[in-house]
Every structure is written in structure tokens, then in C-alpha cells.
């Protein structure tokens, strides 16, 4: 087989994923500022507008931003999927999502309906442009493998999530009352977290865990079945048939299998991404087990804690860990490609030199301290705890931003150096 | 025909690509680089095209998920032999 689908000329420029990656920590810092200002009362009511702003700063501002950037860059680089006019579309997606998320949060925090109404337009534009671009490319791709199946299902789940989210926002922003909006909210949340996010994390894990952590691959029988099975459970849930125990077992199986292959990795080198992912898998197991205790243990903040355990204990560590591999790899790859184009000999820094281990380690500990303090604030509300959680969170995400900016600076410096060798 | 083999299965990114590119710098005409890899190296392919190489990718066993044979574009002797493998 001679595989020639990929053309690096058609691979998006590095500034495309970087603009998404560099924007995301700013939204996380904004969420931490909100926690700092509102204190422990932020977690007193799941339906409060402040808490809605807090959650969406993370789900759209951080998670969707990073995942959009990763998809637009990794689909061509890793799978040979060709995206057309990607610079134009990604600028539109990035701008719309950024403005939409900001206005959504402002609208909720300041109770400004006009901001919510404008945010609706931006989120509609950004969300559906992203879905259209990725869908067209994914379904055009001749490749068939469990990774692409998972990503395809994740994009369908994103379509459902954004559709439901926009519908709920219309109801809220234009004061329309309908029967049972709570059920729609649950559908929006479950398709967003368990559908779009988990399916995408799983799909990307099939590729990046073996590739970057030098582990054996996920077994074929698992990787072929997991995502369609999880998608099926969500369809059943939507039809009013919750298969909660099956869902919990499925989610735990992914975490355990990932921990197992990481334990059997072929080269046992210290690695911060591995630490992020291991803690995330343990976080996923804790989140799933906590869900089960819901049948016997009820308390007012239970749903808020469930969300924080899943997002803060699983999704955010996974995507932050992933960034520490993807960004240095892309910087290195783009520089190497540039060097190949011009056949020059500038010594390019390797991946470990692009984001230094020491700062990744600091970020790791700061992030988990902030996460633990947030959990403590929910369980035992006190303003000191919330201030500490917000303060640690601001530093952690600030450090993430710094690390990503350093990688960008290295890219620009070496790009300039390579180009200057061929210019008169 | 000499087959120069490199095994990059147990190396972390970006070392596999670095080693393949370095080995190609000194690949003599008539020879072929045989790379054992864990994953299909999509980013390498365009670089090979730009640098004037041809390649064949095969998947043979769970132990060697991917193997590549790379030779110079204008090296008809190497190409003939590779295509009969």
C-alpha cells in the first residue's frame, strides 16, 4: 500500500491550532476569576446563572476550543484527512466561539438578555461551521478505523449537544416557556459530556496513548466496539431507557484498559503527560463510582460535585496532558517540514526542549491542588476554600498559557532562523 | 541489494522521524531503507516526496505493525527489487 493522501501543503498552518490552544487557558482563568468574585456561593445552586457561566466557560471556552484546534490540525497530520479552505473556516470558528462564549458568560453573570441573544448567533455560527467542516472531511476520508469511527460519532454527538444547547438558550434568552426543559438540559449535558467529549477523548486516546506514551495498542476487539456501544447507550437514554449500570461499567472499562496499557508501556520514561492521563483515568473511575452512589446517597450539591469530578478530575487533565504532547510535536513537525522545504541545516529543538518538564510538573501540581480545593469547596463550602481554589486555578492556567506561549515563541524564533538562511 | 534496516518501534516521537530522515541523508543508490514502525507515519510521506524518495508501506504482523521500504525516486534497480519483495 502506498499511502499518499497527506499533503503537508494542505496541512493547516501551526497558527490555526495555536490560536485555539492559546485562547482556552484565558477562559479557564476567567472562570477562576468568577469563582474568586462569587466565592463558595457559586456552587450553591446548579441552576444559578453564575454557575451556568462557570460551567460554559470550561465546556465551550476551554474544552471545545482545544478540541476544535486539535481536530483541525490532527485530522490531516495523523489520519491524512484533507480539510479544504481551513484557514478561512478556522478563523470563523475561533472568532465565533470566542465571542460567543464570552458574551454567554457575560450575559449570565450580568443577567443581560441582549448579550445572550448575540452569543446565540455566534455560537450557532461557530458550532455549525465546525461541525460542517469536520463532518465533510471525515466522511470524505477513505480510511476506516476505530479512531475515525469514534471521532465521527463524537461529531454527531456534538451536533446534538450544540443543537440542544442553542434551543435551551433561545428559550432562556427570549423568555419562552416550554414543557419539561429540565429533560432537554439533561440530554444536552449527557450528549455533551458522555457523547462529544468522551467519544472524542477515546478516539484520540487510541492514537495518542500508543504513539506518545509508547504503550501497546488498545485491543482491536475493545476499540472497535467501545464507541458504537457508548453511542447506543446515549440513544437509549434519549429514548427514555437509561442503562446507567452498563454505562458506568463501560466508562470504567475504558479507564482500566488505559491504565493497564500504560502500565505495560514499552519504555518506562518519566513523562508528565502520562501523569496527567493516569490521574485522569483514576478521576474517571472515581466519577463513575460516585455516580453509582447517587442511588443511595443524596445531598444538595451532588450534581455539581458529579460535574466537577468528571470535568475537573477527568476531562481537563486529559486535554491538558494531551496539549503537552501535541503542541511540542506540532512545533517540531512544522519546523522540520520547513527545514526540508529549504534543505537548510538549522538544529531544531526536540520535543522535550519545546515545553520544559519542570514547568509542566509545576502546572500539574498546581492544577491538582486547585481541583482538590474546588472539590473541598463544594463538599464543605467556605470562602477561604473557594478563594484558595480560585487563586491556585488562576496560577495553574496562567502557567499553562505561559508554557504554550513559550512553545509558540520557540516556533517563531526557529522559523525565522530557518527562513533567514535562504533569504538574501 | 543491501537492505538497511532501522527499528523505530520503541522510540518516542519525534525520534522515529528524525532517525529516518537522518538515515536517508546517507542512503546510497541501489540501497533501500527498511523501517520497522509502530504507527503509520503520515507526516513522513510528504517529506519523502519533497526529497525525491519513493516508498511502500506494509502491515505484516502485530509485532511489526508497519514496515516501510524507502528508496530514491530515480533508482530503478532498487525499485525493481523492492516491488518483487
How many angstroms separate the termini of chain A?
42 Å
Poorly predicted parts of chain A? 1-8
Tally of extended strands of chain A?
0
Q: What would the principal axes of the Cα set say about the shape of chain B?
A: globular
Q: How helical, in percent, are the residues of chain A?
A: over 70%
Descriptive overview:
The complex is a heterodimer of chains A (424) and B (85). Chain A contains 13 helices and no strands. Chain A has helices at 15-38, 49-79, 86-109, 113-140, 146-173, 181-213, 220-238, 244-263, 272-293, 302-342, 351-354, 357-379, 383-420. Chain A starts with 14 loop residues before the first helix and ends with a helix. Chain A is mainly alpha-helical and 424 residues long. Helices cover 79% and strands 0% of the residues of chain A. With 85 residues, chain B is α+β, with helices and mostly antiparallel strands. Classes of the chains: A mainly alpha (424), B alpha+beta (85). Chain A binds chain B through residues 1-9, 77-80, 207, 210-212, 214, 217, 266-267, 269, 325, 329, 332-333, 336-337, 340-341, 350-351, and chain B through 9-15, 17-18, 21, 38-40, 42-43, 45-47, 49-51, 55-59, 65.
Amino acid at each position: 500500500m502506498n499511502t499518499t493522501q497527506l499533503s503537508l501543503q494542505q496541512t493547516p498552518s501551526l497558527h490555526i491550532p495555536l490560536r485555539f490552544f492559546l485562547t482556552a487557558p484565558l477562559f479557564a482563568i476567567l472562570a477562576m476569576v468568577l469563582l474568586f468574585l462569587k466565592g463558595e456561593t457559586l456552587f450553591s445552586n446548579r441552576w444559578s446563572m453564575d454557575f451556568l457561566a462557570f460551567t460554559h466557560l470550561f465546556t465551550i471556552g476551554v474544552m471545545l476550543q482545544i478540541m476544535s484546534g486539535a481536530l483541525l490540525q490532527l485530522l490531516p497530520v495523523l489520519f491524512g484527512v484533507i480539510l479544504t479552505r481551513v484557514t478561512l473556516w478556522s478563523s470563523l470558528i475561533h472568532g465565533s466561539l470566542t465571542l460567543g462564549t464570552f458574551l454567554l458568560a457575560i450575559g449570565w453573570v450580568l443577567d443581560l438578555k441582549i448579550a445572550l441573544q448575540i452569543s446565540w448567533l455566534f455560537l450557532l455560527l461557530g458550532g455549525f461551521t465546525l461541525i460542517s467542516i469536520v463532518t465533510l472531511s471525515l466522511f470524505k476520508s477513505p480510511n476506516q478505523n476505530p479512531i475515525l469511527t469514534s471521532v465521527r460519532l463524537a461529531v454527531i454527538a456534538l451536533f446534538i449537544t450544540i443543537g440542544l444547547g442553542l434551543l435551551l438558550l433561545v428559550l432562556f434568552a427570549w423568555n419562552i416557556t416550554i414543557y419539561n426543559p429540565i429533560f432537554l438540559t439533561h440530554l444536552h449535558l449527557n450528549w455533551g459530556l458522555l457523547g462529544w467529549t468522551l467519544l472524542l477523548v477515546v478516539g484520540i486516546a487510541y492514537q495518542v496513548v500508543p504513539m506518545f506514551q509508547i504503550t501497546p495498542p488498545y485491543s482491536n476487539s475493545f476499540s472497535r466496539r467501545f464507541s458504537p456501544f457508548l453511542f447506543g447507550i446515549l440513544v437509549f437514554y434519549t429514548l427514555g431507557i437509561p442503562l446507567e449500570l452498563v454505562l458506568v461499567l463501560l466508562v470504567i472499562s475504558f479507564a482500566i484498559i488505559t491504565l493497564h496499557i500504560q502500565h505495560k508501556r514499552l519504555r518506562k520514561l518519566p513523562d508528565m503527560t502520562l501523569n496527567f492521563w493516569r490521574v485522569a483515568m483514576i478521576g474517571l473511575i472515581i466519577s463513575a463510582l460516585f455516580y453509582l452512589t447517587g442511588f443511595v446517597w443524596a445531598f444538595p450539591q451532588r450534581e455539581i460535585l458529579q460535574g466537577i469530578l468528571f470535568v475537573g478530575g477527568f476531562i481537563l487533565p486529559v486535554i491538558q496532558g494531551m496539549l503537552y504532547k501535541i503542541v511540542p510535536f506540532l512545533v517540531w513537525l512544522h519546523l522540520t517540514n520547513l527545514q526540508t522545504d529549504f534543505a537548510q541545516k538549522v538544529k531544531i529543538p526536540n520535543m522535550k526542549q519545546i515545553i520544559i518538564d519542570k514547568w509542566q510538573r509545576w502546572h500539574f501540581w498546581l492544577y491538582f491542588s486547585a481541583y482538590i480545593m474546588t472539590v473541598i469547596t463544594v463538599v464543605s463550602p467556605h470562602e477561604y476554600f473557594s478563594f484558595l481554589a480560585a487563586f491556585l486555578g488562576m496560577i495553574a492556567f496562567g502557567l499553562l498559557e505561559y508554557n504554550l506561549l513559550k512553545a509558540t515563541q520557540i516556533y517563531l524564533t526557529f522559523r525565522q532562523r530557518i527562513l533567514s538562511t535562504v533569504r538574501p | 541489494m543491501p537492505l538497511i534496516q532501522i527499528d523505530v518501534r520503541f522510540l518516542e516521537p519525534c525520534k522515529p522521524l528524525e532517525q529516518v530522515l537522518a538515515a536517508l541523508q546517507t542512503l546510497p543508490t541501489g540501497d533501500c531503507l527498511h523501517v520497522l514502525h509502530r504507527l503509520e507515519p503520515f507526516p513522513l510521506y510528504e517529506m519523502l516526496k519533497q526529497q525525491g524518495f519513493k516508498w511502500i508501506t506494509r502491515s505484516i504482523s502485530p509485532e511489526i505493525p508497519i514496515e516501510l521500504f524507502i528508496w530514491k525516486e530515480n533508482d530503478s534497480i532498487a525499485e525493481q527489487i523492492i516491488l518483487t519483495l
